[in-house]
Fold this protein.
Amino acid sequence: MSENPSKPPANERNVTLPPNKQTAFPCPICGMQRNIRDSKREKPYVVCDDCGVQLFVRKAEGIKKFKELAATGAASHIIQKGRVQRAVELHDEIKKLKIKRSEVEDQSFFSIFNDDSKNAVRTIDQQIIALESELHALGEAP
């Protein structure tokens, strides 16, 4: 009888590798170091109680790469790089919104500053505040 095509081949299922020697791996959301645990099948996983993230690594190739990232500390670097990239994106978006706000105000200056203009400016201001708050939180993160 042939194997189910939706299932991986038998040699890729239930792979058991030696227990973890590394002790920590960063949460992909907050970047905090979290203990690497071994499942009952001795596969690595990480739980971040703060973010509610559960990271399970199941296949042999993924486990190998996971262990390499943990051993070299490269995962922290990758997450930090992502954090920096997000900070730059936030900064650029805030700049664009401030320019857009000025444009709305300038257009309204020559005409009556009506409710639509006021609502547009208020909405832009709220978005700027939200993005600045996210940027501030990134700057405060370890």
